[in-house]
Amino acid sequence: MQTILSIENLSKVYASGFRALTHVSLDIHRGEIFALLGPNGAGKTTLISIICGIVNASEGSVRVAGHDIVTDYRAARSLIGLVPQELTTDAFETVWATVSFSRGLFGKPANPAWIERVLRDLSLWEKRNNKIITLSGGMKRRVLIAKALAHEPQVLFLDEPTAGVDVELRRDMWKLVRGLKANGVTIILTTHYIDEAEEMADRIGVINAGEIMLVERKDALMRKLGRKQLTLQLDAPLSAIPAGLATWRLELANGGTELTYTYDTENERNDIIALLKNLTEAGIGFTDLKTSQSSLEDIFVSLVSKNPAAASRPATTSAEKNDKGQVTAR
Question: Do 126 and 263 reside in the same domain of the chain?
Fold first, then answer.
């Protein structure tokens, strides 16, 4: 697939000595939805801020559709839209004025039809003449999304876009995101709602302690790292698992009335058939069975908990100063 965003050997060390990123390399494909997952302080916002020109990298390079974000920053930035975590808008401007102004900032000619389309898609059309100060928090979040889309970017960053917003906005935004993807826009998403990543993303990246731990297609990740659990309701309680079944990953539960088996999703059919055969040979009967599968959240928590770098990483602070002396949240 064609690469639209290329990150090579990117590192960031703040003036305080805090290392937010360490040799991050990552390619994002044109037209995909890429979910970047990580705990608080993992480096997600720092990475996005560098790509968007808000924070300067300590080393490494970033190219957007072939344009270097430092040496060719005007062309690179014109291709990027950013929906930040913070609700930062001009409180006394109207919705129409602030979204139209954002388009002009990137040198785009006026296009009222496009602005109208964006506002309608985000259920903002009826609020177009309202001053932003009069809007609810959810509506202000919609305005941020509209501002990011005003100049028709090819790459859209959504940094925790649905944190603290209502269900209706989440639904509207994901509908819009699917439409943007259908039109070839690349979406990079960070979220605490891992179910959103599981539903929306084509590929998943996991970052922790400033390092990329894993990048994988979502379906392949679920196959490789996902686990299933088979629970058998026994017709007679067991006090212990028979020695002949010691090679299986079996556990007794509920006073010996349930037997659980955890297995890889890739070996599902053969494993279960062999296990049931062994249980029958051991004289163990069961009255019912059920299966459950680990979610992307389970996989994420498991990956992060196994990363030794996280234990030595300094506690998260609310903000760091960038190279221009500005305070930027991580």
Answer: no
